[in-house]
Predict the structure of MalT-like TPR region domain-containing protein.
Amino acid sequence: MALRRAASLLLRPRLRAPVPIPTPKTPNPLLLPPRRHFSQLPPPPVPASAAAAAAAVAEEAEEAFEAAKGTKDLLAAFSRLEAVMPPSDKRLALACIKLGQHLEASGAADPSRVLALALRSLGILEATPNSATSTTASHSDAVSLAMALHLAGSASFDLSRFHDALSFLTRSLRLVSPLLPSSSSAAAAFGDDDAQGFDVRPVAHAVRLQLANVKTALGRREEALADMRACLDLKESILPPGSRELGAAYRDLAEAYSTVLDFKEALPLCEKALELHQSTLGKNSVEVAHDRRLLGVIYTGLEQHEQALQQNEMSQKVMKSWGVAGDELLHAEIDAANIKIALGKCDEAVTVLRNVSKQVEKDSEIRALVFISMAKALANQEKAGDTKRCLEIACDILEKEELAAPDKVAEAYVEVSSLYEMVNEFDKAISLLKRSLGMLERIPQAQHMEGNVAARIGWLLLLTGKVSEAVPYLEDAVERMKDSFGPKHYGVGYVYNNLGAAYMEIGRPQSAAQMFALAKEVMDVSLGPHHSDTIEACQSLANAYNAMGSYALAMEFQKRVVDSWRNHGPSARDELKEAIRLYEQIKIKALSCLSPENSAIALPEPLEKELQEWEAGELEGTTSLQY
């Protein structure tokens, strides 16, 4: 809507004051009218009265187009405008933008037609001598070209041409970014430029938002989050404090962070949304109910299940008070059941789920979700037979929904596979994950899930001894997850670690050491050097160097493992004992290599004595071993 107003603002002054536009030096052949055969004689001069009449006709057509509202009227007015204007007229380019934005927003035309209008506009604007690409371009020229690029990017996105969309939108952002006011005083001064008071921030917001959509579709979730954060910053500068739309923006960004499991970043944003909606709409508004439900999801991700259940119950209470029924309330009840399962209240969860199952149709997607959650409760109660029966029912329903909702079904299959793992049905779990991966690969917007699923398949194949099958899945998962979540995401570290374990199994310790080193590097950043999984990665790296015969490096990393477990205190006694034992073994090998004629070299007395004292519990106050 903001962009359509922007097009009108830019169009209006140009329609009032037409400026002669020279013919482009290198016209776009796609935009030229059909070739005609003209006489070689020069045309006779046009009488002044005829020129004035033509200008009057053009002005009338311009006014008619500007006044047109509905799709039918706009199309008719645009056709008339085309007939009376030169094909290279900048005013025609702006009319293309306005019509394209209307058709896109109303869904009244195929995206390919919108793209054609955008490209036509681009061809005119870029061929103009003082176009936005030149150093003498005005702000309004830059904004006009930026809006045309945005329209082209948006239409390309709708046509699933994501890389084309990314190119158009990146160019658009490059044009509008220098025009953004950096402060309130700059914003005031910005209104005095040649754009006649036009505020470029809504255009920048629209470009950023569409960039986030494109990058999400390409699986580049971390970059998409940066664009969404920039969108929020722009909205905060545009909207008045307490705006309902601003509250929705906080919640949207919180939901985006939740999608990538960054619940710490999501929590304060969702709390801001809740605070804003409560102050402007009241504590019992539907928006507050949405905020509380998302808070429940975030608290669940943070494993703060009591707070999650409290927020969920408050959300349901508000929805019921407003008479909100249907799928939204049912999903909230299923969420509540899952939280109860996490709290160990499986019987209460089953009661909730049975109540929900009575309210849904037999073959509905929600009924499948009910049986998945029911299976989760039964699996936690170690009722394997009942768990499998529930999962079979869920799979039968989901299979019928594969064509209608492939993204939701693929995600559900992933959850079902994890429950089959719980009851040791690994082949079934792997089969469902492969089925899910095949579906996700056909959904452009689901690229961020492909890496997770491929990693899960690789891990299960590794777990079941099918190492050679596991390696390609893990190698593929690493690349996909780096593209989606960034190279330092903790999930990437886990896949590196599993890939290293696979390489060790097939006798490639050098490749394994490289993977373990990468895993440790990622986990040092994302989890911290003293996290148990980071220590395990360091242990794996020491093992790999040990297998390679690089004992000096193996001892160095094994020493780090010992010190790290020592920092965990008495709770890590068993881990520390094992780490010391492995250090001793590596040291024996190292000394044996130095003196092959005397392979049975005893360890130095201080280490043996210290280990014995530690086993007696006498070293709890110390912080490191003496080597």
Notes: The CA atoms of residues 386 and 454 lie 28 Å apart. Confidence is low (pLDDT under 50) at residues 9-40, 183-196, 598-607, 618-627. Residues 573-594 form the longest helix (22 residues).
